Amino acid sequence: MSALFNRSACFSKKKNCVAANGWPGLKGYVYKKGGASRHMDKKRLQYLLDQQHCQRLTTAEEQELNAWFGTLHFDPGLDALTEEQQDQRYRRFKSRLAQPVKWPRVFAVAASVVLLASLALLLHKTEPAAQRFVAPGKAASARILPGSDQAILEMGGGREVTLDGKPAGSKLRFLNGSQVIRQGNGHVSYALAGHTSSSEINAIRTPRGGQYRVTLSDGTNVWLNAASSISFPVSFHNHKTRKVTLTGQAYFEVARSATQPFVVAVSSSTHAERQMEVEVLGTHFDVMAYDDESAFHATLIEGSVRVRAAGGLETIKPGQRASVDRQMRVVAADTETAIAWKNGITAFREARIESIMRQISRWYNVDVVYDGKVNNRLFTGEISRRSSLAQVLRVLELSKIAFETRGRTIVVKPQ
Length: 415
Description:
By secondary structure, the chain is α+β, with helices and mostly antiparallel strands. A hairpin with a 2-residue loop joins strand 26 (401-406) and strand 27 (409-414). The longest helix is centred in the first third of the chain and has 21 residues, at 105-125. Helices cover 21% and strands 33% of the residues. The protein has a 19-stranded mixed beta sheet that branches. Strands 1-2-3 form a three-stranded antiparallel beta sheet.
C-alpha cells in the first residue's frame, strides 16, 4: 500500500496541546492533553495498524485504535500561513520524502495508514479554496474546479430543461396538473395532482462534473453521481412495480410500499453479460453501474433487497454487496466507502491508481491518459470532493506518481 502525505508538515505548540512528533504526515495534528491514547508508543501503534491492514483486529484492539485516532485534532493555525510559506514547507517536506528511509516493510504499511488518516482529516477540516495549494507548474490543474449541482431533465415530447443554477420554488407543469418543483441546492421533486395516472417517462442525466438529487412522485429520493442517468415514470399509479432504469451511479432511499416493489434495472452497452435488477419494498442502497468499471455493484445500507443477475437471484443484507460481471458474487461491503460520494467525499480503499483516476475523471470532467506502465500499488484514503483538481493531484503526487495537465487531459506518469 502506498502512503499519501498532507502538505502542512509542521509542529504545533499550542498552549493546551502536545505536538504529534515522529510521524511526518501527522505533524500539524495535535493531541489533547490527557487524551487516553496519546502515549501509545510506535511499536504498539505499528502492531494495531498492521492488524487492521490484515483485518485481524480484535474488538478491544479496534476500540483502542479508534480511541487513538479520536485524540487527533487539526491545528487551524496552519491555515494562517501565507501561500509562499505553504509552498516552502511543501517543497521541504517533498524533498525529505525523496530521501531513502530504511523502514521495515510492515512498519511502512502501518505508516501509510496513519498518513492517509491525517490526509483525510486535513482535507475534511480545511476550506477548499480553489487557489490554495497551487504548486509551481500546476496552474492548469488549479483552474479545473470540482463538480457541482447540474443536470438535464428530459421530459415528454423531447423537451429538455437545464436544472443547474435554477432558483428554488420555480415549477414545471404537466398537462395533467402534475409539477416538477425546483427545491434548490441541486434538488427537484415531483408532485402529482391527486391520483394522477400518466404513461410519460422522464429522465434526469448528469454530465461529468455534475450531481443531482430527485424526489420521485412516490416519495423516493435518488442522488445521482456524475456521468449518470435515471429514467422513470412521472406517476407510478396503475403500475405493478415502481421500475426505474439507471446508468452510472445512484444512491436510493426508497419510500416503502408493501404492494408495489421498487425495481432498479441496469444494463451495459459494452458488456452484454451485465444485466442486473435490484428489487426492494423500502430501503437504502447504492447502485454503481459504470461501463468502465470491472463490475456492477449493489450495496445495501439498510433493509433488504433482492438482486437478479447472471441467471441467479440473491437476497442481500445490510453491509453486503452484490457484484455482477459474468456471474454474481455477494460479499461483505465497505458501506462508508460505497456511499462516500453522496456525502461529498472521494473515497478509495486498497484501490489501484486507475480506479482512483476514474473517479477523478468523472467528478472533475477531465480525460486521463497514462504515460508508462502502471504498477500494482494500492491506495486507501479520502479526499473532499470540494477540493480543486490541483489539491487532489498534489496529494497523489506525493505518493511517487507524477501528473501533467494538458487542458482538460491529465497525463499520469507512474514512477
